[in-house]
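Design review, sub-item: ligand-bound model
Attendees: FS, YL, KQ
YL presented the inputs for the nicotinamide-adenine-dinucleotide complex:
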Amino acid sequence: MKILITGNMGYVGPSVVNQLRASYPDATLVGFDIGYFGNCITSPEVLPECRVDLQYFGDMRQFSQEVLSGVDAVVHLAGISNDPIGNKFEEVTLDINHRASINLAKKAREAGVKSFIFASSCSMYGTAEDSARAEKSPLNPLTAYAKSKVFTEKDLEPLADKKFVVTCLRFSTACGWSDRLRLDLVLNDFVAGAVASGRITILSDGTPWRPLINVKDMARAIDWAITRDACNGEFLAVNVGSDEWNYQVKDLAEAVARVIPGVSVSINKDAQPDKRSYRVNFDLFKKVAPSYQPRVDLIASIKELKEGLEAMGFKDGEFRNSKYMRLKILTQLQEKGLLNEKLQWIKAHSCPK
Ligand SMILES: NC(=O)c1ccc[n+]([C@@H]2O[C@H](COP(=O)([O-])OP(=O)(O)OC[C@H]3O[C@@H](n4cnc5c(N)ncnc54)[C@H](O)[C@@H]3O)[C@@H](O)[C@H]2O)c1
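KQ shared the predicted structure:
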């Protein structure tokens, strides 16, 4: 078994590598990443990339077929990974997330890859407060990021067949500890605020709904998808998360305050209403992957984040401006002249004078 994991040097990637290493001890794991967040390590002992057998550095937009030689399964995580980046770099987001993903899938199909897993997102449901959205519910992508996921799923569908099984995992919002932690995710942000300054500041009025999932459970869903039964469809788009994990943002803050005593929670009453509010139905995932249902619960996720941050000696009350925010890093790399307007490395500029 040879598995290519694109975007392995991000937040979700290290958990996926750990999971696949455990499930397929003899497999050859190959990573491919542009390395935007290479320096944003939060578990300093071992570089997470040491756990893959081969690491490529490259841009999905110039993907070379030779990377796919002998590959059985592709786990495609690489991409612009949130709304704020997508809003600032709209065209680049569509280029990387949509066009480059379809190019990769076509090349993978040609190369004889059997299983293609795409990291999609429940954010494509947009506003959905009235009832929980299932896979066949209307989509309402409100941002370039969400649209890029919709376009990619749509163009992946006709590529799927018996020999090329495609699974789009529509993930809930991720949370939990990672060797490359992100703090621009709602639960991670709340725990970071609580640990650093004893304060949680909710940026919205607290009412938006968000389904959540721990990164370890995302990795388990990917593990399932790699060898899933094609009788559930050669192309399958499935919501990944659990019904119990549909939360309102203010409930998440209150849960953090219960686990970490003495924390104050403030709600921004003047905030513009957050249109991205959705509840999601996970019946299909329960049906097709009964043994791979999420296991890590909210309290366990809060505790692992708290312990990880404390072990780092995390005290940065200004973390919303720190290297744990994906948009911040990309903007800084651009300001330093290391990335151009298309978020491509300006290689000559990164060499010391
Ligand atoms: N984190 C979440 O809440 C969540 C939820 C749903 C779906 N997803 C999807 O899961 C995937 C992984 O998310 P994450 O949280 O690890 O994001 P991340 O930003 O931490 O990681 C993305 C990785 O992709 C790489 N990358 C970006 N553009 C690239 C390019 N042109 N060529 C090669 N590599 C490139 C980055 O360097 C980074 O290492 C993304 O596709 C994201 O949309 C994430």
